Fold this sequence. Notes:
Layout: H1 2-25, H2 28-48, H3 55-58, H4 60-84
Helix pairs in contact: 2-4
Amino acid sequence: MKELEQRLDAIEKRNKRVELDKSWETSWTRKICIMLLTYIVVIIYSYFIRNFDNIFLSSLVPVIGFTLSTLSLKLIRTKWEKKRI
Length: 85
């Protein structure tokens, strides 16, 4: 009986961990962090290649691209899942 309780506890802990992982993957906190990091990296890259023609505006391009891709991937994934079922 004790072994069954331990197994059930382990399954419940795993389920909580999986739910948390899923929640993180779709969170705005994660998306915003990636956007900011992408923006900073592109600014630094642009600085090193000496692209001073409006460095801050041109650095927004990859960030906007990333954001649009994360928003559209959810729609694509939903359609993909419906076809798989």
